[in-house]
Amino acid sequence: MSGxxxxxxxxxxxxxxxxxxVYDGFGREICPYILGYKAGKPVALVYQFGxxxxxxxxxxxxxxxxxxxxxxxxxxxxxPWQGDAEHRTRQSCVDDVFVDVNLNVPSQPGRSS
Length: 113
Description:
Elements: H1 4-15, E1 18-23, E2 26-38, E3 41-51, E4 62-67, E5 71-77, E6 96-100
Antiparallel strand pairs: 1-2, 1-5, 2-3, 2-6, 3-4
């Protein structure tokens, strides 16, 4: 299961590029880290470093779990990678990993294409 937004997040992870998008009505500036599925629905763990949020945004940024179906107007942009590519903290956003920005994570079907 994929679509244009899933494919754009996939490309952003492989190329370590930023995404500008709208999520839940707020403009967001993000770096996606993990793309895959939770309960069969496409999701992404992202590091949000700019834009708005109903919960606010700490200076420097916050980790967020995005339902891909709730993302609109997504586009890639160049800019420095934000967050920690090793992301050592255990995450609960993505159960079935398709691709991870961390190359040390095994079994990434999204890297074989």
